[in-house]
Amino acid sequence: MMAGKNIEVDLIDSPYAQMLEKDGQYLSIQIYKLPGENWTLEIVTPDNTSTVWDETFTDDKVAFNTAIEAIDEARGVLGFIEETEAAVKRNPSYLN
């Protein structure tokens, strides 16, 4: 272990990454990867609770479509936020 050394990581952000707003509620759809790796999908709620998909994606548009499908299944932005908050309340270790 090398104390004091910072390792720079060159994350590549997808052009599909964006803030999604509906009725004054926001979600941050984050799609990123390391060079040579697959895309990671993460959705962040206004209180900074993060949902990260276990699987990665070879195509960033597929990752974006997966995010939209998950939001639609939750009945929109507010539904996704409420489901995420409920999951954290049921399992506080979800945050660790």
Can you walk me through this structure?
With 96 residues, this protein is of the alpha+beta class. The protein has one domain. It has two helices and five strands, in the order E-E-E-E-E-H-H. It has helices spanning 60-73, 77-90; strands at 12-13, 18-22, 25-33, 40-44, 50-52. Strands 1, 2, 3, 4 and 5 form a five-stranded antiparallel β-sheet that branches. The longest helix is centred in the C-terminal third of the chain and has 14 residues, at 60-73. The model has no long low-confidence stretch (mean pLDDT 89).
Write a brief caption for the model.
29% of the residues lie in helices and 25% in strands.
What spatial form do the alpha-carbon principal axes imply?
Answer: globular
- What is the count of β-strands? 5
Q: Strand count, sense and closure of the main sheet? A: 5 strands, antiparallel
End-to-end Cα distance, whole Å, is: 23 Å
Helix/strand-derived class?
alpha+beta
User: What is the N-to-C order of secondary-structure elements (H for helix, E for strand)?
Assistant: EEEEEHH
State the domain count: 1
Helix content class: 25-40%
| Count of helical stretches | 2
Low-confidence stretches: none
What kind of assembly state do the chains in view correspond to? Answer: single chain
Q: What portion of residues belong to β-strands?
A: 25-35%
The overall average pLDDT, rounded, is: 89
Which radius of gyration do the C-alpha atoms yield? 15 Å
